[in-house]
Model the fold of this input.
Amino acid sequence: MFQPLTARHWLLIAAAIIAMAVVPLLTRNSYLLHVLILSMVFGIFASAWNLVTGFAGLKTFGHHAFFGIGAYVSALVAIHSGLSPWITIWIAAIVATVFGLFIGLPILRIKSMPHVAIVTLGFAEIVRIIASNWQSLTRGELGLWGIPAFTGFTLPGIGKITFSPADKVPYYYLILILLIAAMVVISLLMRSKTGLAIVAMRDAEDAAESLGVNLTKQKMLVFGVSAFLVGVAGAFYAHYISILTPMAAVGVDLMILIIAMALVGGIGTLSGPLIGALILTATVELLRDLDNYRLLVYGAIIILSVMFLPRGLATLGDYFKKRPKAPTPNA
Done:
């Protein structure tokens, strides 16, 4: 499934990274950088969900629970302990992983994928209800504010790096580094022997088990890695936005948006969730005035994608390559 990367692929990857890296050098428009930062946060989220659903075939609809856990844990630990967000984001990611393994151990033995989807969605709703009602800790829908920003530092040759709401550039480069790291982890995992076992498990679970693949071990591994990456994205989001509400961090509309990103970009591909995240994040910003009606738009996008572009935008190149050429008219 994953062919060796050719020189052309490496050039495309390098060009994409360079293009993203030079954006702040070309413009300091805060709104544009904000949209790109959110697209990269959701790109990590969508890629991690795609790892579980697209590559491993586990239909989970509750990954926004790990996003919310990562966001709230990092924010609360930083507020109450005084630890730097540079430390709390990893604590939050580990906590999200623990919860991922906790919920994964019992549900991943279930053969029925619809039941897995319902149980994970129910788990996420429990997390949202706790965040909404534990007002003494999370302040509920009033919003958890006072979340500290990342502490600044000095880079030789560049100078002082300060994280503040007025300057989006440090946040932009930080989330770009986290995105690249997340994609390297996913790519290395899927191009290893473990990745082959994961894909085999998705395509033919019984056949994979008969060949010696430990299904429980593989499912727990992929679920744990995915929860860790989503937890990192949620923790960064908390310290970037600086205020958290249960609906924003653990709302079901967030999960629907992530599913739409993966489907539009191309589920089961490495680049698809990133493409979908970039396109739909910009679309979400354009649709902010629709408020609650945005869910209808997400649903329409998902339906249209499944009907007319089932393999996603990431596979458009393959589609045009395979289209038969029109016959040349005789002279």
Q: What stands out?
A: The radius of gyration is 21 Å. Residues 7-319 form a domain with the ABC transporter involved in vitamin B12 uptake, BtuC fold (CATH 1.10.3470).
